[in-house]
Amino acid sequence: MDKINLTKEEYDLVEKVYDMFKKGQQVDKATLEKVVHMQKSVQLLKPPYKNNLMSQFSTGMSQPLSETPQKSYSTVKQVIERMEQLKKLGNDAFTREEYWFSVSYYTMALRCFDKHSMSLANADAQEVKEMRKLAAIISTNLSLSYVKQDYIQESATVAEKAIAYDETNAKAFFRSGYALQRLGMVDKATAHYQHGLRLATSSKNNALHGQIKKELDHVFLQQRQNAANRIHTRTRIANDTSFSAFPVSLVWDPVKGRTLSANKDVPKGALILRVAPFGAALIDETLSTHCSSCFRNISFCKHVHCSKCKMNTMCEACNSDKTIAEEHANECDLLAFLHKHTPNAQTTDFRFMIRVLLRAVQHLEGKANKQSTPESWRKDGAPFIYDTLDDLDHLSDVPSNIDEKKMEAFTTATGAITRVFDMVKGPTFLAQLGKQHILDLYSKILFNAHEYIDPLHQTAVARGIFPTGAYLNHSCQPNCIWYTDNNGMLAYRSTRVIKAGEEIVTSYLDITMDRSKRINRLLEQYAFYCTCSRCSADDNEYHCPDCREPLSTKHLKIWEPQPSINFDGRVHQCSKGHATMSAMFEVLQEMSHNLPIFGKGPVIDIGLRSFFQDGSMMVLNHYSSRATQAMENGLYDLVPTTMDRLWQCYKDAFKDPRDLIPYRYVGDCVQVLFPLAKRDKSIPIMGQVKEKCRATLELQIQLSTHHILCEFEQLFTIK
Question: I need a surface site. Which of 112, 233, 476, 514 has the fewest CB within 10 A?
Answer without folding.
Answer: 514
